């Protein structure tokens, strides 16, 4: 029960809550005048969020700190001059697919995607490096943090590329990893929808630190839970004491009050029974609503809304509810064939599970089961909520009213077998890949609606495989965005820590040789998606051939097994910032176009989509108008033409299409007259069109 505050609103606290929604990482704890803990704003961190330079601060507070943290925050907020370039020849169904595979540093990619995918991602799943000392992690070249660290601790660290092995001997074992994750999570959070959720796989090495930085980035109040996942039932020896069989999955929401999961794990067939109204739990799984119950509270107030007796007559399903003690019996009802039910425990009267109104609601829904002495709640859902501990198991389950073989497959060995069979090789080309069954389970936590799944440590591309498989099973319209650094396999082979790692890398190199492609991990990941898509399509067609008359068929033609490949690169625009004193005639000639010579019209279109905040998965149509190539994005959301010598006739035809936005090159117009008149022509023919010139 709430009480009146008897004071005007606390604007300070209201403002703190508003700031927390925008910048959850700046909220910390402090003592008030009475010594009690309260939420406060870390103004130094807030200043850093709003600053383009490092902010100095020596104040102590409750928080996780490490050398390079401020630099990571600065990096997260700074812009970069990068773009994406499409690669048709490596894509599958480029013109029709809504899936993306992006090659590049995932931190750069996340920044590039900020405008186009701001607040649009429903689910993020990542399986980052665990910082075991054997895995490769990103080496971000941010000199300031490195220099600060060396100054503080007096250690040296050699410069590296994008990947390095973060051994504890380098003195920056945790700091490097924390900085790498912190800056990426800061940017990734902004991509999530308000009801979006992020899943992060991790093991014992950094799970404690991961929780702390996620509390900062997403807000402690948005922590959903940690799954313990049995990924290696036999266990792996990583110490002299225990054999580790599990790892973790840390789950946070963008806004916990808006995020929700569905019950998604099928119940065992042995725990299910059917009546005319549907399935319900029976046996030990039943929830007792009225009857003997050791879990409910002893009745202390007779007037409690959970204290009532139930009379029920089986033959005509008549129900009577009365407020009375268990010692009182309505003999008239009993003589009429009613049975009395009340809740008790060891001779004491206890409350019923639900209020009287809730109980009546369930009765009207025919969701109650009456035995001789107890009343149970039926469950019309054939699934159960996911448990915090996921264990490998196989059993029969009733799924959507049908008895099916059900398997919860979580093992990395099983995942390795899946990939080996897919590539037809003796050794899996990926180390410790995630099981498709595990990823399908996580994705299926959400309602079957069109949404985007982002994995920016995509590795073996298991997430993409899982999305396609689920879509084939339930006719879903989920889309994926995979992001992976193009790791050089030859270099990784030289750095391999043991024979097992060498075999994995050599298998990946062998696949690249078979494909006649460069030795990069991304080439194997893309091929995995191609093979997985073809396998899913083949199995779906075979399933349709075996489908009985009247059963639902899934149209293979509507299944999206394609993906558009994009690669990170420098901006398409030339650096034209020259001082007048250094300009020569040859330089002026080179500046007739501000676009780099090696860039294609599709390169320009991609950067335009990103700059205008349009998704890269939108349908794109190429059309010829008066001999010029015109790109039409999503009917009329955007029309772009980057050809040279565009005259007013082409402009008029484009304007007649009534596009929302139109883009041309600055150097595209035939003469100055057309350049000057373009806005006037659109004002006359398509006044709502937004015009942009590169």
In terms of topology, how is this protein built?
Elements: H1 11-22, E1 27-31, E2 37-41, H2 43-49, H3 69-77, E3 82-86, E4 100-103, H4 106-112, E5 121-126, E6 136-138, H5 143-153, E7 163-165, H6 173-191, E8 192-202, H7 207-218, E9 223-230, E10 236-237, E11 243-244, E12 246-253, E13 265-266, E14 272-275, E15 278-281, E16 287-290, E17 309-313, E18 318-322, H8 331-335, E19 339-341, E20 344-345, E21 348-349, H9 356-364, E22 368-370, E23 375-377, E24 383-384, E25 389-390, E26 393-399, E27 402-408, H10 412-423, H11 436-443, E28 452-455, H12 462-474, E29 479-484, H13 489-495, H14 499-515, H15 521-546, E30 564-570, H16 585-590, H17 601-611, E31 620-625, E32 628-633, E33 638-641, H18 648-656, E34 661-664, H19 672-685, E35 690-693
Helix pairs in contact: 3-6, 4-6, 6-7, 11-12, 12-15, 13-14, 18-19
Notable features of this structure?
694 residues, alpha/beta, 5-stranded mixed beta sheet, 19 helices, 23% strand, disordered N terminus
């Amino acid at each position: 029960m709430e009480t009146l505050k008897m004071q005007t609103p606390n604007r300070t606290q209201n403002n703190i809550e508003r700031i927390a929604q925008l910048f959850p990482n700046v909220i910390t704890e402090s003592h008030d005048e009475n010594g009690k803990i309260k939420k406060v704003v870390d103004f130094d961190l807030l200043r850093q969020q709003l600053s383009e330079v490092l902010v100095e601060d020596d104040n102590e507070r409750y928080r996780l700190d490490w050398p390079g943290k401020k630099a990571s925050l600065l990096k997260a907020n700074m812009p970069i001059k990068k773009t994406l370039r499409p690669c048709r020849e490596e894509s599958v169904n480029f013109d029709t697919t809504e899936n993306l595979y992006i090659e590049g540093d995932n931190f750069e990619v996340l920044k590039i995607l900020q405008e186009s995918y701001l607040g649009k991602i429903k689910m993020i799943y990542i399986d980052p490096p665990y910082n075991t000392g054997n895995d490769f992690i990103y080496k971000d070249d941010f000199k300031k943090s490195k220099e600060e660290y060396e100054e503080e601790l007096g250690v040296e660290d050699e410069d590296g590329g994008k990947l390095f092995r973060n051994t504890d001997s380098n003195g920056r074992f945790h700091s490097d990893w924390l900085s790498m994750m912190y800056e990426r999570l800061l940017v990734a959070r902004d991509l999530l929808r308000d009801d979006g959720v992020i899943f992060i796989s991790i093991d014992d090495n950094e799970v404690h630190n991961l929780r702390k930085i996620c509390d900062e980035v997403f807000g402690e109040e948005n922590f959903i839970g940690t799954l313990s996942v049995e990924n290696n039932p036999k266990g792996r020896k990583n110490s002299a004491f225990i054999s580790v069989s599990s790892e973790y999955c840390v789950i946070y929401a963008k806004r916990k009050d808006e995020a929700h999961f569905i019950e998604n794990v099928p119940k065992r067939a042995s725990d299910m029974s059917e009546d005319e109204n549907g399935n319900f739990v029976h046996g030990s799984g039943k929830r007792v609503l009225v009857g003997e119950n050791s879990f409910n509270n002893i009745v202390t107030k007779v007037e409690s809304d959970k204290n009532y007796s139930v009379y029920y007559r089986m033959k005509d399903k008549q129900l009577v509810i009365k407020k009375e003690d268990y010692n009182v019996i309505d003999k008239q009802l009993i003589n009429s064939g009613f049975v009395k039910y009340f809740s008790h425990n060891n001779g004491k009267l206890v409350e019923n599970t639900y209020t009287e109104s809730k109980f009546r609601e369930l009765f009207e829904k025919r969701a109650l089961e009456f035995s001789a002495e107890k009343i149970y709640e039926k469950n019309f859902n054939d699934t159960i909520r996911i448990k915090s501990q996921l264990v490998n198991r196989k059993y029969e389950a009733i799924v959507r009213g049908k008895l099916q073989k059900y398997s919860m497959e979580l093992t990395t060995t099983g995942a390795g077998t899946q990939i080996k069979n897919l590539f037809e090789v003796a050794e899996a080309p990926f180390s410790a890949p995630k099981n498709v069954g595990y990823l399908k389970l996580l994705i299926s936590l959400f309602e079957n609606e069109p949404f985007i799944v982002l994995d920016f440590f995509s590795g073996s591309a298991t997430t993409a495989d899982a999305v396609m498989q689920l879509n084939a099973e339930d006719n879903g319209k989920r889309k994926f965005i995979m992001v992976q650094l193009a790791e050089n396999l030859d270099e990784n082979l030289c750095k391999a820590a043991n024979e097992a790692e060498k075999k994995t890398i050599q298998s990946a190199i062998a696949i690249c040789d078979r494909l006649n492609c460069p030795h990069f991990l991304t080439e194997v990941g893309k091929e995995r998606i191609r093979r997985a898509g073809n396998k899913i399509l083949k199995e779906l067609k075979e399933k349709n051939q075996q489908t009985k008359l009247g059963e639902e068929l899934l149209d293979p033609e509507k299944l999206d097994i394609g993906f558009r490949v994009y690669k990170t690169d420098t901006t398409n625009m030339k650096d034209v910032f020259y001082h007048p004193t250094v300009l020569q005639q040859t330089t002026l000639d080179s500046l007739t176009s501000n676009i780099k010579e090696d860039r294609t019209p599709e390169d320009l279109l991609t950067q335009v989509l990103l700059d205008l905040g349009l998704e890269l998965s939108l349908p794109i149509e190429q059309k010829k108008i008066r001999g010029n190539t015109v790109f039409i994005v999503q009917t009329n959301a955007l029309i772009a033409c980057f050809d040279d010598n565009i005259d007013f006739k082409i402009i008029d035809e484009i304007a007649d299409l009534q596009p929302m936005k139109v883009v041309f090159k600055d150097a595209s117009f035939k003469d100055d007259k057309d350049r000057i008149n373009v806005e006037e022509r659109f004002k006359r023919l398509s006044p709502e069109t937004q015009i942009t010139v590169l």
